[in-house]
Amino acid sequence: MGTRILNKNIVNDAIIKDISDSIHGLNYGTVTITVHNAKIVQIEVSQKSRFDDVWTVQEGGGI
Q1: Domain range summary for the chain, segments of one domain joined by +
Q2: ∠ at Cα 41 (40, 45), nearest 5°?
Q3: What are the percentages of helix, strand and coil residues in the chain, rounded to 5?
Q4: What ranges in 1-63 are assigned the alpha helix state H?
Q5: Is 27 in contact with 46 (CB distance < 8 Å)?
Q6: Distance CA 20, CA 60 (A)
Q7: What average pLDDT does the segment 7-29 reach?
Q8: Strand (E) positions, the chain?
Q9: Which residues pair with residue 23 across a beta bridge?
Q10: Contact, 12 vs 31, CB < 8 A?
Q11: How far is CA 57 from the centre of its chain?
């Protein structure tokens, strides 16, 4: 089987910038790229907020 080389650019600069901006805008979360018919059709960002340091239980505290 031969290797097929694609000569056309299937990801344009605007899509690359959107993906990069999405990643750089996150501290915690996910960036999901949806592909349909070998084309990127959607970029979905899910951001999470973390409160690990806020919930320390001190003596006499808690729920």
Answers
A1: 13-47
A2: 95
A3: 20, 25, 55
A4: 13-24
A5: no
A6: 46
A7: 85
A8: 29-36, 39-47
A9: none
A10: no
A11: 33
